[in-house]
Structure to design on (276 residues):
């Protein structure tokens, strides 16, 4: 069987998804294609998506700015996508479109792959910085994985409170987080702060960290953000954002093909590609 996959979004000409999925095809001995389908933000989305549907892809990824826009065009959502309110992966099964969100689960996979000991430390105090879409996905995935002690820090508390909902969780301001960050052995930066070209920016001043801290940043351009550089100077173990990109793609490939690609050395290959 020859699979046909793709990506919709805008702008996406420089997306790494085609390269990643080519590696997956090779590693699983599955035949397929993965192409980019840019949909200009000024184009009528309903017309474009109707034309796109005629291509009869077996599955496709969705990136900004269409992760929410795509939802009314889907036949069904899985539980995580429904809770998050955004879709990044669509499966075409018997002509019906099923929506999933692999971002948060992919992040948790990448984290546990790098630090497997965390799987046995579900009550570890976790601090999530930011309260946007990425935080929502990661928070939900951490809860689903069984982590129980999660705090969300954001400049405004309302968004953090809305993510937690009726579940057990704590919120604080970014200023408060900067004062007590040393009490969290796992810190996850979930915003775009520090992304190129604003590489000197950090979400907060990192003056101290827990003595055995793991500090993670979902930004992967640059690979080692100013936030991670500072955490490393303070003696923390660090976790790079590009691995989230790989593992959310792995989960999508799994949904489409029922096959899980092996990941050995793929993070190092992607690291080289990102560094040019």
């Amino acid at each position: 069987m020859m699979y046909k996959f793709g990506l919709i979004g805008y702008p996406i000409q420089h997306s790494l998804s085609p390269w990643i999925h080519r590696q997956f095809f090779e590693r699983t001995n599955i035949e397929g294609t993965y192409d980019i389908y840019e949909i200009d933000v000024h184009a009528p989305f309903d017309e474009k998506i109707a034309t796109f549907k005629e291509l009869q892809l077996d599955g496709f990824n969705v990136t900004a700015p269409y992760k929410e826009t795509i939802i009314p065009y889907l036949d069904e959502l899985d539980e995580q996508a429904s809770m998050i309110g955004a879709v990044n992966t669509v499966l075409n099964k018997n002509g019906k479109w099923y929506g999933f969100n692999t971002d948060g689960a992919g992040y948790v996979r990448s984290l546990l792959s790098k630090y497997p000991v965390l799987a046995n430390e579900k009550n570890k105090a976790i601090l999530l910085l930011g309260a946007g879409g990425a935080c929502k996905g990661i928070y939900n995935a951490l809860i689903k994985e069984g982590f129980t002690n999660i705090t969300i820090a954001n400049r405004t508390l309302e968004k953090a409170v809305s993510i937690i909902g009726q579940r057990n969780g704590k919120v604080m301001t970014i200023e408060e987080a900067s004062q007590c960050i040393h009490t969290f052995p796992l810190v996850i930066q979930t915003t775009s702060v520090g992304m190129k070209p604003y590489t000197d920016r950090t979400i907060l001043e990192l003056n101290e960290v827990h003595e055995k801290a793991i500090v993670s940043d979902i930004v992967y351009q640059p690979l080692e953000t100013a936030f991670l550089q500072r955490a490393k100077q303070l003696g923390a173990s660090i976790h790079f954002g590009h691995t989230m990109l790989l593992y959310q793609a792995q989960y999508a490939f799994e949904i489409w093909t029922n096959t899980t690609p092996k990941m050995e050395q793929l993070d190092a290959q992607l690291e080289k590609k990102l560094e040019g």
